[in-house]
Amino acid sequence: MKPYIISPSILSADFTRLGEQIAEAESAGADRLHVDVMDGHFVPNLTMGPFILEACRRVTKLPLEAHLMIEHPEHLLAAFAQAGASGLIVHVETCPDITGTLKTIKLLGCSAGVTLNPATPAGDLEPALNLADQVLVLTVHPGYSGQEFMPEMISKVAEIRCMLNQAHSLARLEVDGGISAATISRLRDAGADTFVSGSFIFHHPEGIVAGIRSLREVLAS
Ligand code: DX5
Ligand code: ZN
């Protein structure tokens, strides 16, 4: 199992050059790509659907994870799986039957991820812990890239790491929101092993390759 995974969020990419930017992230050693799906209801912003994910699928071999910030995600799971997603991440807030939804994701052949908003208590993950392949902790309020990391989420990451250990779960613990060279080590030390990063990578003054390299350097230190 890879100790640390870096998952660039394409929400911060230049969409007029999406294919090129994905190729650059892949050549820089990104482990997978993070696709932020927003519906204008669960979160105020509106972004991309299966159509864009399918376009990404055609230009990269990297696994694609879809972070579904949408109401009734169960209606779109099959569409994202068919479009080529390797992982589907759903919010506990939108899934009244979280175990059923995670089972459906696995039946579709995808890895099953669960996530929660900053205001949602870690305990709400309890029913999902034995099924999830991945738990994602949002370290900003969902909806936009480029927001400031919420340091109060560090203790939540540590709490969820303990819960996973107690449940003997091998799920990866991913963090998403405001991850940069300045914030990543605190999250690693709290127990995160998988890091989504959007604006830090795609808006890095020296380019995407330098952005990914600088996160790797901090993780190795
Ligand atoms: C926030 C999204 C994030 C976002 C991350 O709603 O879930 O994936 O794109 O972007 P940065 O790294 O810029 O906070
Ligand atoms: Zn995300």
Question: What is the structure about, briefly put?
Answer:
With 221 residues, the chain is of the alpha/beta class. Helices cover 34% and strands 19% of the residues.
How would the blueprint of this fold be written?
Layout: E1 5-8, H1 18-27, E2 33-38, H2 50-59, E3 64-69, H3 77-83, E4 87-91, H4 98-107, E5 111-116, E6 134-138, H5 153-166, E7 172-176, H6 184-190, E8 194-197, H7 199-202, H8 208-220
Parallel strand pairs: 1-8, 2-3, 3-4, 4-5, 5-6, 6-7, 7-8
Helix pairs in contact: 2-3, 5-6
Bound molecules: D-xylitol-5-phosphate and zinc ion (ZN).
The site of D-xylitol-5-phosphate has 21 residues, from strand 2, strand 8 and helix 7.
Relevant CATH superfamily: Aldolase class I
**Low-pLDDT segments:** none
**Could you give the distance between the termini?**
19 Å
Q: The biggest beta sheet, please? A: 8 strands, parallel
Count of helical stretches: 8
By CATH, the architecture is named Alpha-Beta Barrel
- Domain unit count: 1
Mean pLDDT: 98
- Small molecules bound in the structure, each named once: D-xylitol-5-phosphate, zinc ion
Write the element-wise H/E pattern from the N-terminal end onward. Answer: EHEHEHEHEEHEHEHH
Strand order in the sheet with the most strands? 1-8-7-6-5-4-3-2
**DSSP summary, beta strand count:** 8
What is the overall shape?
globular
